[in-house]
């Protein structure tokens, strides 16, 4: 295995956060991002607590946080990122992956473009985690995974394929996809930035959030941050946390600022560790502390390792 699962899990979630935090000048500004991933954190916490997908629990957690469940244009990206934990948790089985992605989307109002965007991003992440992502076949495979659909996303992805085959530069891709601020264009641009700089996380997210072309001045900071978030998730899943520049990671650790509703960056790392433990079947006694004694003497806490989903934290 090229990268460990925990590296890819961390790369996916932290990559999405960093992608949305970058400005068009390539700097990380923690106060400027629109908090795309709060729903993703709540979903991750639900999966950790229950070890399975439970829509009622997801809805309850979001209502408790007073998050809007209506699928409006301004939260479409939040919905797609909210499903990223599902893609991570069920990445090994394409059938379960598709079923659970579509199942969790029932929380929000039906939107075909959000559905296709969710399936496309989730499937690409799953391929990356199973090390089956081939850049030459990713887009045809993704279109096949979407199945028959009335949306423009398959057509936009085919345009991405053509641009990549022609070796088209960033300015041409931006001119193609930034004419209108549509979710399908954001998805397409994210796939372009990811695939055109496949093994360079830093360059992928910098290109995704870069906008100096006078022809695409209509691109808003929100659309650039959305593109950056999806690109970061895709590239982070493929390249793992080791691909995230060290100085960016150090900056996150030093500032230890709140992330997606969590109190600190350290809390995010602990959340991902617990998430991987539940997915993998590691039983961590620290998650369910109990005093183990033997003849009045305290016994050291142990962790038991097993095949995925054989032993679950409870």
Provide an overview of this structure.
It holds the Pfam family ADP_ribosyl_GH. InterPro entries: Ribosyl_crysJ1, Ribosyl_crysJ1_sf. One of its GO terms (molecular function) is hydrolase activity. The chain has about 325 residues and is mainly α. It has 2 domains: about 5-280, ADP-ribosylglycohydrolase fold; about 280-314, no CATH class. About 55% of the residues lie in helices and about 5% in strands. It has 15 helices and 4 strands. Strands 1-4 form a two-stranded antiparallel sheet. Helix 6 (about 95-105) packs antiparallel against helix 7. The protein is globular. The protein starts with a helix and ends in a 10-residue tail after the last strand.
- State the oligomer: single chain
Cα shape: globular
Helices and strands, in order, run as HHHHHHHHHHHHHHHEEEE
Sheet/helix structural class: mainly alpha
Poorly predicted ranges: 289-305
Share of residues in strands: under 5%
Estimated helix fraction: 55-70%
CATH superfamily of the largest domain: ADP-ribosylation/Crystallin J1
**How many discrete domains?**
2
Name of the CATH architecture of the largest domain: Orthogonal Bundle
Arithmetic mean of pLDDT:
83
Output the CATH class name of the largest domain. Mainly Alpha
Number of helices: 15
What can be said about the biggest beta sheet? 2 strands, antiparallel
User: Taking Cα atoms only, what radius of gyration do you get, to the nearest Å?
Assistant: 19 Å
Q: How many β-strands, per DSSP?
A: 4
Distance between the first and last residues' Cα: 29 Å
What's the arrangement of strands in the largest beta sheet? 1-4
In CATH, the topology of the largest domain is named ADP-ribosylglycohydrolase fold
């Amino acid at each position: 295995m090229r990268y460990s699962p925990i590296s890819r899990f961390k790369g996916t979630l932290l990559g999405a956060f960093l992608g949305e935090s970058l400005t068009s000048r390539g700097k990380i500004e923690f106060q400027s991002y629109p908090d795309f991933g709060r729903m993703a954190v709540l979903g991750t916490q639900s999966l950790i607590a229950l070890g399975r997908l439970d829509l009622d629990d997801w809805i309850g957690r979001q209502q408790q946080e007073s998050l809007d469940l209506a699928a409006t244009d301004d939260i479409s990206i939040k919905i797609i990122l909210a499903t990223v934990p599902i893609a991570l948790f069920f990445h090994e089985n394409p059938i379960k992956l598709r079923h659970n992605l579509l199942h969790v989307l029932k929380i929000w109002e039906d939107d075909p473009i959000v559905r296709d965007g969710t399936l496309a991003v989730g499937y690409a992440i799953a391929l990356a985690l199973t090390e089956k992502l081939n850049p030459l076949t990713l887009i045809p495979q993704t279109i096949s995974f979407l199945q028959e659909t009335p949306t423009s996303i398959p057509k936009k992805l085919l345009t991405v394929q053509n641009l990549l085959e022609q070796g088209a530069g960033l300015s041409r891709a931006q001119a193609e996809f930034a004419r209108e601020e549509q979710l399908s264009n954001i998805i397409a641009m994210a796939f372009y930035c990811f695939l055109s700089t496949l093994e360079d996380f830093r360059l992928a997210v910098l290109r995704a959030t870069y906008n100096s072309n006078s022809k695409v001045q209509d691109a808003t900071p929100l659309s650039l941050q959305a593109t950056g978030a999806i690109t970061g998730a895709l590239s982070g899943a493929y390249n793992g946390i080791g691909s995230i520049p060290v100085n960016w990671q150090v900056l996150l650790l030093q500032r230890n600022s709140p992330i997606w509703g969590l109190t600190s960056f350290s809390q995010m790392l602990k959340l991902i560790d617990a998430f991987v433990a539940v997915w993998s079947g590691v039983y961590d006694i620290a998650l369910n502390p109990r005093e183990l004694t033997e003849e009045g003497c305290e016994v050291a806490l142990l962790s038991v390792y097993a095949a995925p989903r054989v032993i679950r934290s409870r």
